[in-house]
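User: Quick sanity check before I run a bigger batch. Here is a single chain. Can you write out its predicted 3D structure?
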Amino acid sequence: LAQQPSRRWWLKLSPASRAEVPKPTGAPAPAEVAPLAELRRMFWDSPFPVTLQDAQLRLVDVNQALLEYTGFPRDYLIGLDPLVLLHPEDRDAQRLTRQQLSLALGEGGEASAFSQRRLIDARGQTRWYRAVTHVVRGDGAGAPWRFSVLQDCTSEHLAREAAERSVAELGHWFDLTPVGMVLFDEDGLIVRA
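Assistant: Done. Predicted structure follows.
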């Protein structure tokens, strides 16, 4: 540090040489883990979106179906924590699911979890999906890998919301009408009067 005449301090730095990036050790490549290789063989070319995450929960690989489902390019997704793709209201629930998986993994060699969440795709649209995540370890006590298979259920949620709106609208008509109304089911039984 050197004091300049204007009573400011200056820090003089010399250019540093470029440090070598250490190669990761300890965790085998996904292709080297036998259970992962089998899961990838079964699901990678399927029409279902599939993700592979490392021990730090970053995406290591995704299949083509996930790229089409989300609309994001592979370069954007690789290295990303998929939590950022989730709808903000679903992030805490996903963190809880992650914790439960980690606890289950501590008790045994493998663990699985089912979740149903929303993600925001590249166009800003909300997409509902169901996912089964299977946590796999390689030989020995290697770092865990998370292999997830997703199923789109957006149309199911939209249909359910439309049905709920229809029921609410029908109830509203029953409340507002000055004339008596009767609603029958397909067997001819009175549902509402």
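The chain is about 30% helix and 25% strand.

User: Great, the batch can go ahead then.
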